[in-house]
Amino acid sequence: MKSIPLHWQILTAIVAAFIAGTLTTPETTLLGVSTMSIFDFIGTLFLNGLKMIIVPLVLSSIIVGVAGMGSGENIGRMGAKTLIFYMVSSLLAILVGLAVVNVIAPGIIDGEPAGDRLALVPAEQVAAEIQRAEGRGTGDIVEVFLRMVPPNIVQAAADGQMLGLIFFGLLFGYFMTKVQGRHQQVLLDFWQAVFETMMAVTMFIMRFAPIGVFGLVAETITNTGFEAIQIMFWFFITVVVALALHTFVTLALILKYVGRVNPLKHYRAMAPALLTAFSTASSSGTLPLTMECVEKNAGVSNRTTSFTLPLGATINMDGTALYECVAVIFIAQAYGGDLSFATQFTVVLIALLTSIGVAGIPAASLVAIMVIMSVLELPLELVGLLMVTDRLLDMMRTAVNVFSDSCCAVVVAKSEGEENVLKGSVTPQPVAAQRTSTVS
C-alpha cells in the first residue's frame, strides 16, 4: 500500500464504502456484530486520532510560524506589505465563502435542514449543541475577544478552548523573538522539535485515513442510501463557486487596481504552477515551480519572490480559509443552526487565524475545521461528512492558495517600483520544467 499515493487510497476507500453501505442495512450483522457498530468504531477511532493531535499541533505550528517571521524590526517594509496583503486576501476569501454559503444554503434541502438525511449524528444531539452558538446579538462579539484571553491556558487547552490557545501561541511566538542570547535559540529549537514531531504523528495518523474514511462514509450510506450524495453535491458546488469568485473576481480586481497589471497576463504566466498545484494538492511542494513562474514568466525579481512566496506557502491559504468557513456554516445549516452575526463573525475570525497557524501541515483543512467547530461547540464527528468530496476540493483550493501567493509577489514588486512585472508577451514555462515536489 505504501507505493500507492494516499489520495488514491482514500478514493478507493470511498468507492468501497459506497459498495459496503449499499449492501448493508442498519440491521445487518457480521459474525454476530452489527456492521453499523463496526463502521462506527472504525470512523470514531480515526476521528479520535485527529482530535488527539489538535492542541499540540496547532500550538507548536503557530509558535514556530510566528517566530520564523523574525522580530518586528527585522520584517521591514516589504515584510509589512506582504503580511498586510496575505491578511487582507485571506479575509476577503473568507467573506466571499461566507456570502456564497449563505446565498446557496447547501445545508438546506427543500426548505428543511438536511441533517436527518445525513444521519452521521442524531439531529437532536446536534441541535442541542447549536443552541449554544446561535441567537446571539452583535454585542456578544465582546465575548469572542474575552475568550481570546483565558485566565488559565492549561485549562483552556484541556477544555479545547482553541481561541485562547491560538492567541497565546501568537503572543508566545512573537515575544520569543524578543528573548536575548542563547535562550531564544533554545526555545526555538524546542518548539521546532515539537512541531516536527507532531508533523510525524499527523502523517502516521493520516496513513489510516483510508480506513477511517471507509468507516465514516459506509456508516452514512448505510443510514441514508444515496440521498447524502445530493446534499454533498450542493456543498461541492458552493465551494467551487466561492473559489472561482475569489480567484477570477477578487484577486483579479486586486491585480488590476492595486497592482496595476493585466490579470489575464498573470493567469497565463502562472498556468504551469497552477496545474501542478492542482495535480499535487501541495502548495509547499509546488513552491519551486511557483517561484520559477513568478520570476521568469511574470518578471518579478528574485529579491521579492524569495521573500514573499516561501512566506506565503507557510501562512497564506486563501482557498483553505474559504473552505473552512463554507464547511462549518454548511454543517450548522444542515442541523438547523440559524447562525447569528456574532457566531459568523467568530467563524471568520477563527478561519483567518487558523489559516495562518496550521496552513503548512498535512490535512490542514481538517484540523482547522475541527478547531472552528470546537470553538462553536459543534460535534466533531460531523467532519467525517466532508471527506467524501475533500480530495477534489483540496486540489482546487491548493491552486487558489498558490495563485494568491503569486498575486502578492506581483503586487509587492509593483509597489517596490519594479518595472519588468508582466511587461510584454508572456511565454509560460512548460510544466515539465518543474522540480520534484512532494504532497503535503
List keywords for this structure.
mainly alpha, Proton glutamate symport protein, two-stranded antiparallel ribbon, 19 helices, 4 strands
Remind me, CATH topology? Answer: Proton glutamate symport protein
Distance between the termini: 18 Å
What count of helical segments does DSSP give? 19
| Fraction of residues in H or I helices | over 70%
Biggest beta sheet summary: 2 strands, antiparallel
What is the string of SSEs from the N terminus onward?
HEEHHEEHHHHHHHHHHHHHHHH
Strand order of the largest sheet: 1-2
Strand content: under 5%
State the CATH architecture: Orthogonal Bundle
Radius of gyration: 22 Å
Count the domains: 1
What characteristic shape results from the CA principal axes?
A: globular
Mean pLDDT: 78
What structural category characterises the helix and strand content? mainly alpha
- Tally the beta strands: 4
Low-confidence stretches: 133-140, 429-440
CATH class: Mainly Alpha
Structure description:
With 440 residues, the protein is mainly α. It has one domain: Proton glutamate symport protein, CATH 1.10.3860. It is 72% helix and 2% strand. It has a two-stranded antiparallel sheet. A two-stranded antiparallel ribbon has the order 3-4. The longest helix is centred in the N-terminal third of the chain and has 34 residues, at 35-68. The relative contact order is 0.19. Residues 133-140 and 429-440 have low confidence and may be disordered.
What is the secondary structure topology, with strand pairs?
Layout: H1 6-23, E1 29-30, E2 33-34, H2 35-68, H3 72-104, E3 108-109, E4 112-113, H4 115-118, H5 123-131, H6 141-147, H7 153-158, H8 162-176, H9 182-206, H10 209-224, H11 227-257, H12 263-269, H13 271-280, H14 287-297, H15 302-315, H16 318-334, H17 341-357, H18 364-376, H19 387-415
Antiparallel strand pairs: 1-2, 3-4
Helix pairs in contact: 1-10, 2-8, 2-9, 2-10, 2-18, 3-11, 3-15, 3-16, 3-17, 3-19, 11-16, 11-19, 13-14, 13-19, 14-15, 14-19, 15-19, 16-17, 16-18, 16-19, 17-18
